[in-house]
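Bug #77: duplicate submission created two jobs. Keeping one. Sequence:
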Amino acid sequence: LRQIIKKHIKIFGDVQGVGFRYWLQAFAIRKGIFGWVRNTSGGQVEALLVGNDETVLNLIEQCHMGPPTSKVNHISVEDYAGNYQTKSFDIFPSS
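Kept job's structure:
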């Protein structure tokens, strides 16, 4: 039985100005993952991923590679305890 999980991730490296948010959004929508993505003022990309465990963990794996123009150093992953009901995947303004 698949579980719905919520993960808050931060992607570190050369990840801004390389289409990372659009790449992540397209991947998430294709896989039925809900949530959001945005750039942070510190130069990272952060995202909330809500979906079935296998799909979300697979997307996090894909983020280690990212779009061809990005260079990912590492990703921090935390469980997200908050409520998230939105059934879309949005690009939010930078924090």
